[in-house]
Amino acid sequence: MAFDEIIDLDLEVIAKALEASPDYRVLRKLAPRLPVLGIPDEETKLGLYVDTEATGLDTSRDEIIELAMVPFRFTPDGTVVRVLPAFNKLREPSIPIPAEVTEITGITNEMVAGCEIDPDEVIAFTRDADLIVAHNAAYDRKMLERFAPDAFEHKCWACSMSQVPWQEQGFEGTKLGYLSTQFGFFYDKHRAVSDCLAAIELLASNMPKSGRTALDHMLEAARKPSFRIWATYAPYELKDALKARKYRWNDGSNGFPKAWHIDVDEALREAEIEFLRAEIYQHEAEIFATRITAYERFSSRV
Asked: How far apart are CA 258 and CA 250, in angstroms?
């Protein structure tokens, strides 16, 4: 068959024929998500998916150069009902955009020249949101609270990267690009709105083992309080035991203890405290634990 005859065929028919074979996988370009009909707004919550591009990864110093916020309606049991029009703005930083950032994002100094993001406009756009979501909320929340604290500090936050059990469901990574290919679609990567839309599509998708949506899993994790347990004054020679248990080191520069710490679910709090007393301190030490909810989680305030 000649090439011009092939392209006249219905491409979806070709795609479905390829998918019927075990020798092929088909990636489709991400299409706009159709709304779920019959669910009134009063039965839904308003989510706001956010993504920032910045001059670097230091949340205390680097500057936002692009901000996207995509509102979406969802039900408490994890159904994405509809996606709403996005907010997307560029911003000129006080320093030139590093070449490596331009290479990743495609954002040049010329594109952002003279551009600003008005914090008051951001506050107005976020006002009605019940939940803010990002695919690395530990980064985006800190960046956005520094830029517009009145818009983001008093909101509930969730993370589609760390609060969805991707590994348990059989995935080998958590990057958006990887996950999107596993769910059979591709998109224009590393621009903020495209990343938001791809992530919302992932949240709306059913997980391969549980059959639940990724959003349902994320909401379940976000609703649960957790505890940050501090191993203050832990013996230096036992640092490897703490690292093996996934404790992280805090250097004290953020105003919190210079110590090892770990975040655990409420159900595991007492067991973790007993571990520290038995294996690290070897006496009935007083253990400092901070309760964390979606209002504080991922912020610099914890």
From this structure: 5
Nearest Cα to Cα of residue 206 among 82, 81, 79, 84:
79
Would you state the pLDDT for residue 151?
Answer: 98
User: Residue 152 class from Cβ within 10 Å (0-12 exposed, 13-18 middle, 19+ buried)?
Assistant: buried
pLDDT at position 217 is 98
Residue 55 near residue 213, CB atoms below 8 Å? no
Q: Return d(Cα 242, Cα 86) in angstroms, integer.
A: 43
Can you say how many angstroms the Cα of residue 186 is from the centroid of all Cα atoms in its chain?
18
Tokens 């049991």, residue located:
77
Report the C-alpha gap between 284 and 154 in whole angstroms.
37
Beta strands in 118-257 (DSSP E): 131-134, 157-159, 185-186, 226-231, 248-250
Residue 94: which residues within 8 A CB-CB, separation 6 or more? 63
Residue 145: which of 132, 129, 135 has the closest Cα? 132
Q: Whose CA is closest to 163, among 200, 214, 126? A: 214
According to the model, what pLDDT value does residue 302 have?
84
Residue 6 scores a pLDDT above 70: no
pLDDT in tens, 209-255: 999 999 999 999 999 999 999 999 999 999 999 999 999 999 998 88
Q: How many angstroms separate the CA atoms of 189 and 196, rounded?
A: 10
Residue 34 has pLDDT above 60, yes or no: yes
What DSSP line would sit under 206-236, residue for residue?
Answer: BPTTT-SBHHHHHHHHHHS-EEEEEETT--G
The tens digit of pLDDT for each residue in 50-102 reads: 999 999 999 999 999 999 999 999 999 999 999 999 999 999 999 999 999 99
Q: Quote the tokens at residue 236.
A: 């230096």
